[in-house]
């Protein structure tokens, strides 16, 4: 119905349009008329401007390049990932998107390191001896030989550190904070505790791990291979961070008691190699003299998982859905907003290292080029795939004040905006948006129509089958138009797009914006 009305407005003679509109104007007061006309015309104009740039052939060309076999799955790090970064940066340049001061090549260097794990290690707690990988893991640090007494801090909150002196000792905590049961959340919590231990003078930080969701043996397999992570140790050595298997009750009880019992840590064979990867960043200044100091981030990650296990003769994990589609979604917004800026300024960011643990977005959120209190919204795009081409799934749709704008944009192009109905998957906290949400920035993720991780999704998700020739481009045109139109509506709106009260990031938002 909406499409029919749009076509009528485009093609009806001007005199017919005046016949419809003029009587309405005569019945309205002058002040009301100006506001009403402005709102109506602006909505129609944003829709028209959306359709002026989104083109199926451009979409195909971008995706076929980024997800080509020659790109070898855009692993982090890899030469092909850096080629993809150059492709994105020159695309921004071609569209007229401006570089930020100090980043004339559109590239924000993200320092990372590839760590080859140690092959030898023992952990002695009193009379109990543990072996590397089987009983404990080294999450951060370098080869070491250390002997010190331990001190137990329960969950390791800031208040826990106020109660005891950890200087010169090995700080021992239980993994995660109270109420957390996700090992991914535990890892981020561990980094926070590691920082607290270092600040308070500890010589190492050790955490007790027990989680039936992911048994320790699975963690060992994951950490037995080389890992890429942020290199935050350029200026000083990181504090050793270990996870200990809780399977030995006697050893764990000794750790919890702390005191004079010595803990001896020996780890050897670890190799650390620094690598460089890049976030790609560009901006378009807003058209409104006042609102242009507010920024909307439009973001996606452009890396994937590289070359891996062969499946049906193919070992290149192309990553068309995840996340060439997301990257091109943001490229389409960049092209459109560069030609037709919104009232608010636009910041386009393509993140590196998402598949390695949201690394590029973590680095940017901690080292923002534009201060985060000037960022009103982060509209991320990330995908696992699609199994319903009648919808767009917005992870966090119902959590911010932009819900109605996103719904309007999708409806306009024949899609239904639906919320994430898979809370058990924790999708909101598994994409780059979460690093901005933690800081307080409202940050949903615009995704292809996914309603469950079923066979349709799993056929392509992190599989070599996820190539550019397997996509429904007619659906993608609707999807991209919906995103670009939503970007325009959010960039021009006068309504609040803040977190809805009660959201778990609501208080962080209030602190960020001094609300």
Keyword list:
single chain, 515 residues, alpha/beta, Aminopeptidase, Glucose Oxidase, domain 1, 2 domains, 9-stranded mixed beta sheet, 8-stranded mixed beta sheet, 16 helices, 19 strands, 37% helix, disordered N terminus
Structural notes for this entry:
The chain is of the alpha/beta class. It folds into 2 domains: 43-111 and 276-513, Zn peptidases (Aminopeptidase); 118-269, Glucose Oxidase, domain 1. The chain is built from 16 helices and 19 strands. It has helices at 2-11, 14-26, 30-51, 56-66, 79-95, 158-163, 183-199, 216-223, 249-257, 320-339, 359-366, 403-412, 433-437, 455-460, 473-492, 506-513; strands at residues 107-116, 120-125, 128-131, 136-140, 144-152, 170-174, 204-209, 227-230, 241-245, 262-268, 271-284, 295-301, 307-311, 314-316, 345-351, 375-381, 391-395, 416-419, 445-448. The strands form 3 sheets. Strands 8-1-11-15-12-16-19-17-18 form a 9-stranded mixed beta sheet, with helices on both faces. Strands 3-2-10-5-6-7-9-4 form an 8-stranded mixed beta sheet, sandwiched between helices. It has a two-stranded antiparallel sheet with strand order 13-14. Strand 13 and strand 14 (314-316) form a beta hairpin. Helix 5 runs parallel beside helix 10 (320-339), helix 10 (320-339) packs across helix 15 and helix 12 (403-412) runs antiparallel to helix 15 (473-492). The longest helix is centred in the first third of the chain and has 22 residues, at 30-51.
